[in-house]
Amino acid sequence: MKKKTMQKATEGNLKESILIALAKAAEECAELTGVHVRKSPEYVLNTYIVKEVCDNFDILGFRLEMIFSDVFEMLGYKPKFPSHIRKGAKFDIVLTSRNSKKPRHVIEVKRSIKEKQMVKEAKRILFVANAVHGSKRLKTGFIACVARIKKKGTPAEIVIAARVKEIENTVGDGFKVFKSYKEYEFGELGFPINERLLLVVFEIKKI
Asked: Which of 153, 123, 126, 120 is nearest to 138 (CA)?
């Protein structure tokens, strides 16, 4: 059997891999459960993401629900947390080095694309990127979203553009925000005929 060719674990490749994982989760959940993916617990999305990423990048491992302070402790750094990060707060996913086990990137996973949630997660990624931990890779984080778009509501492209702008305003100068997304047809994958599924991955990178 021919050995699978592994991709380089660049931020762009990771972003696309996360989007593929969301699509697999959405399509398989609809087929196997009979309901759309937004009715599944968030951890279902998390497990699809880490499986896809680790299958594609053999240098990466993962931790789920990792406490903020534990991430920094592994890097020998003890930051002072701001008020918007409560004690015991956790990252949905921390991608790690399979060899050293040290953290490389954080991923926050959401079942909506509401402004309030995007700003909250952007602030978390901003804090990690700006912390004095010595890790270049932790300066890039991701937000993965599974959202619903209504036929009479705001089009997906406009929603995404607004969220990119809101994230950019939150993280400020010195950061770039990239996005990848996939939109399904109305009524597809368990959604009502007047709703469609939108999958979006935001990459927030300190430059």
From this structure: 126
Name, in order, each residue with C-beta under 8 angstroms of 152's C-beta and a sequence gap of 6 or more.
194
* Model confidence pLDDT, tens digit, residues 102-131: 999 999 999 999 999 999 999 999 999 998
Contact 202, 168 (CB under 8 A): no
Residue 4 is assigned to a structural domain of this protein: no
Evaluate if residue 150 carries a pLDDT over 70: yes
What is the C-alpha to C-alpha distance for residues 151 and 16, in angstroms, rounded to an integer? Answer: 26
Domain assignment of residue 158, yes or no: yes
Q: Which pLDDT does position 159 carry in this prediction?
A: 96
- The token pair that represents 143 in the structure block: 């937000």
pTM (2 decimals)?
Answer: 0.93
Q: Rounded to 5 degrees, what angle do the CA atoms 34, 39, 40 make?
A: 90
Q: Which amino acid makes up residue 173?
A: D
